[in-house]
Structure formats: structure tokens, C-alpha cells
Amino acid sequence: MKGFGVLEKGKVGWIEKPEYVCGPDDAIARPLALAPCSSDVHSAYEMEGDYLKNRILGHESVGEIVEIGSNVKDFKVGDKVVIPCTTPTWEHPDIQDGIPQDAGGLFTAINFSSYEDGTFAEKIKIRSADMNLALLPEGVSLEAACMVTDMMTTGFYGPEQAEVKFGDVVAVFGIGPVGLMAVAGSALRGAGRIIAVGTRPDCIKLAKEYGATDIVSYKEGSVAEQIMAITGGKGVDASIVAGGDLETFYTAIEVAKFGGGQIAMLNVLTEIESINIPNAIIAGFLAHKTIKGGLCPGGRKRMERLLSVVEAGRVDPGKMITHKFHGLESMEEAFALMVNKPRDLIKPIVLFD
Predict the structure, then answer these.
(1) Domains in the chain: ranges and CATH
(2) Model's pTM, two decimal places?
């Protein structure tokens, strides 16, 4: 079986792997749509470990089932399915603690391209198929469905963690695909004013379509000062961090209002040994600001709920696709776009005939 992935830290390429063996609870699918992600770039160039040697990358995918295990009841060969990036170990007792992403240990729910090979291959193996797969609705495009698997579930997790309410003022830092979905999710949850922080024209245009009411650019001065001016010095009810660096995170904390400000951290900070939050922006831990972070929800019900939002026409995450490719052989080119990130890129996708 051919796949594209990490050969060793800093080196990517094509890998040959044995054909999958389908376990009783598993399903095996052929890809219909695949999308590379910034997390794949992090895995290839910034992270290190034996588990990332000769590891097929990828975790955003839609497929067609070609084989099912004997225990799988709700799916059959030929079904077109949405495969979430997060596939929890539903049989682990930690599920009963209420956070399936953490059942069994750190990152166990993001097993694609870590504990197991990922989706950039001729075939995709999905564990706990009945619990992790969702049928592709007829009215949802492959492009939109592929964006649901990670970008939408991750982006929507921002306003969920920040507990966005009707009329809230929300700041979204970074309006790449995750930030754009955080804007859309905030709008759906009833935010009154949504301040999007970004500079790329295509992203700004789409952020406004998804519900952003204000655009802030670091090129026009201090982001914190601009946001405080927009809010009349009060700050925002919710800060959602979907990009940037450590200073962006600090700014998000700074502009969150005293007395109930919520900060949701969606951005993955790599190669940083420590985080030292300036005391002034948290008022000696007396500011009643809450910081939350975590791996995005996955599994079948999450996908079904998000797909229903798309099917009803509430949000079209497929609008984020700016570059289209065809066939597995084009995965290398699509991945290179995520490495180089040209200014007109929002999200690439690889489609299969």
C-alpha cells in the first residue's frame, strides 16, 4: 500500500506499507477527498519520535468503504463516509470521565499519523467504525465534508470552550481555516460583534461572509489597542486564538474583559519550553479570566451534528478551498502548499475520481 508521510524528522516522501488487516470493529475505505493540514507540517518538521518515522500523514478525509469488520452494524461496503480527524478509543473506561478525546492518554484520540498511519494513502483504516464514522449526506459536497472533519470541528470548539452567548463580543485571532470556522461558529452561537484579526485579503473577505463585523490588522498598530478602542475600553467577552505565536496568546488574554473574560486556545504552540503569562494582564490571578484548551471533539455524533449544520445551509466550509488537486500522486504538491503557505492559500484539497 502506497502512502505519503514522514520518513524522518524534516524529510517527507512516499512510503510502502503492508495492506491493512480489518479488525472486527474496523472499516477500511478508499479515499474520496483528502486535505493536508498545518498539523501535518508540524509532525513532519517540528516534532520528533520513533512513532514519526516512516509514518503516513493525514487526518482530514472522506472515503468509500471497501471492507468492514464482523462487528460493524451501521455501515456497509460502498457507503460514502466522513472520517473525523479525532477517533476516540470508545471502549476505554476513561470515556466515562466525559472527555473522549483523552480516553486512554495524551493524544490517543488523534491516532491518525501518530499511533497509527494516517489517511494520505491508497486505503484508510478506521477503528471503532460504528462510533467514529458518519454517512456523507447527499446534499453535502466532498469539499465541505472534508472541511468538517477537522477545520470545522476545531474552529467551532473555540466558541464552545469560550462559552459564547447571544450578544457577546468575540475576538478571533488568526483567520486561516480554523479561525474562519471560529468566526462562523461564534456567529451561529449568537455573538453580537465578531472582531477578526488577520491581514490576508481572501481570508478577510471570507471572514466577513462568515459573520465578522470588524477586521483588525497588526499592520495598523497595536492589536490590543485597536480591540480596546472598538470595545470602548471594556475588552471582549471571548478571545479565540486560532493562529499566531506566544505574543498573540498574551494579547488574547490581555483584551479579554476583567470579570468573566473567556480565552479559548486552539493554536498549537510547538518548540516552546514554557509559557510565562504577564501578571498585569491577569491582575495577579484576580481578574476572573478563564483559559481553556484541548483537542477538538470527534466521533460519529459530532460529525453528524456538524454535517446537519452544513446540510441545512447554515455554513459552507467548502468555501475555504482555494486549491484543488486530483489523485494521490498530487498529495506531495498539496502538502508543499501547506509548508510554503502562499498568500492566496486558505485550504488545499485532493479529490479522487
Answers:
(1) 2-151+296-351 (3.90.180.10), 154-293 (3.40.50.720)
(2) 0.96
